[in-house]
Amino acid sequence: MLPTRRGLPVATRRISRTALAPLALATALTALAAPAATPVQAATALPAVTPRAATSALYDDAAGGSADADDPAIWRNAADPDRSLVIATAKKGGLRVYDLDAREIQSVPAPAAPAPGAAPGRFNNVDLVHGVRLSGGRADLAVTTDRGRDRLRVYRIDRDRPGGPLTDVTDPAAPAVFSASEDEVNEQRTAYGLATWTDRATGRSYALVSQRERTRLALLELLARADGTVGYRTVRTLDLPSSFRLPNGTSWSPCAEPGELPQVEGMVVDPADGTLYAGQEDVGIWRLRADLTGTPQLIDRVREYGVPATYDEATEECVAGADPGYGGKHLTADVEGLTLVTEDDGDGLLLASSQGDDTFAAYDREVSDANEYEGGFRVAAASATLDGSEECDGAAALAAPLGHRWPDGLLVVQDGHDSPEDTDRTATGFKFVDLGDVTDAVDD
């Protein structure tokens, strides 16, 4: 059987379905077979970097407020980089705001359920938008997907505001992103992954949002209201394939529970050219235009790509068949936590969490170099009390000086098993890693 994650099989959520995208798109994905190293071989061969700080553990139980670490974003205070912030989602626990020593300075609750039996708020992913013109002047914003309520929520960032730097400026009339009714909201095929993007040609800002248990991506334009709040409207949507033509002529879909399609979560947009990178968890990494026009290209595949598997309802696991060798060499499902290390000359890296083997893959940022694989690394334990990152859901990198503590920039990664706290309680958190250590590891 396939390996499991927190009691669920890594590839449990996918099963064969009819393709949502045009057949021409799926046909274009056919690639030559390539033998892949085992996940264990790949992971042990990679260099290790160690964190220099960690947030306090979050506990996904009643005593811990059902807080479950997921996705971070890094806000740089241009006036005083030492006072920059990390803003992170905690699912039903809302948002957490940390300083550069990983100390919590604000906790923002997710919205309560609007009525008995309705789903409460659940913050999944977060990203930033800079210099948005609001009625009170320009401001930086933190945008998060509220998976529970199928909406975006928007927070103004003010480092010196009494009570904490985040203020909710979400338009109260903001609509559901994917759901047409409250019944559909409660089905939870809702707003999930997130990346923000400002079009340099027009100055307009957008959020790209993926749909849980579906392959759909939506482009939402962010709209500043006269009362100082921020709403949004849907510009267009795009459906990635759920079925793929293999080199042997057969069709393959990732194994899943009945009715589920291979979803996207980790996403990031390159601000220089408006290129969106989207991680379809059990498939691989897509490259496409952030305006959702044109044809997406699959730039790398997970090792499990093309492996036949059958969902067993009795065990709620996928039983895999023989590996035909069509998968990639660098990612073990799920692919998560995409982030960019950008440089002014256009060089840099695309980083992706290879959740299934607790590693990270690094690709060349430049499309002209076909986003070729540059190397990988692990975030390993620094000591008995400062562990590394396992089963990483989300990551954020910022290649800019962040005061005396992080002069070479910062990488923040989610840790799905925050040891030694993760014993009889499910504990998660975030690890802070010197970005210079990461780039040195990849260069080596």
Supply the key terms:
444 residues, mainly beta, 40% strand, five-stranded mixed sheet, five-stranded antiparallel sheet, 32 strands
What report would you give on this structure?
With about 450 residues, the protein is mainly beta. Helices cover about 5% and strands about 40% of the residues. The chain contains four helices and 32 strands. It has helices at about 25, 40-45, 180-185, 435-444; strands at about 5, 10, 50, 55, 60, 70-75, 85-90, 95-100, 105-110, 125-135, 135-145, 150-155, 165-170, 190-200, 205-210, 215-225, 230-240, 245, 250, 265-270, 275-280, 285-290, 295-300, 310, 315-320, 335-340, 350-355, 360-365, 375-380, 395-400, 410-415, 425-435. It has a five-stranded mixed β-sheet, covered by helices on one side. Strands 4, 5, 30, 31 and 32 form a five-stranded antiparallel β-sheet that branches.
Biggest beta-sheet profile: 5 strands, mixed
Spatial order of strands in the largest sheet: 3-29-28-27-26
Tally of strands: 32
The dominant shape is: globular
Rg value? 20 Å
Mean pLDDT figure? 91
How many angstroms separate the termini? 35 Å
Class per helix and strand makeup:
mainly beta
Uncertain stretches of 5 or more adjacent residues:
1-36
Provide the β-strand percentage band: 35-45%
SSE order and pairing:
Layout: E1 4-5, E2 8-9, H1 23-27, H2 39-45, E3 48-49, E4 53-54, E5 58-59, E6 72-75, E7 85-89, E8 95-98, E9 104-108, E10 123-134, E11 137-146, E12 151-157, E13 166-168, H3 182-187, E14 191-198, E15 205-211, E16 216-224, E17 230-239, E18 244-245, E19 251-252, E20 264-270, E21 275-280, E22 284-289, E23 297-301, E24 309-312, E25 317-320, E26 335-342, E27 348-354, E28 359-364, E29 373-379, E30 395-398, E31 410-415, E32 427-434, H4 435-443
Parallel strand pairs: 3-29
Antiparallel strand pairs: 1-2, 4-32, 5-32, 6-7, 7-8, 8-9, 10-11, 11-12, 12-13, 14-15, 15-16, 16-17, 18-19, 20-21, 21-22, 22-23, 24-25, 26-27, 27-28, 28-29, 30-31, 31-32
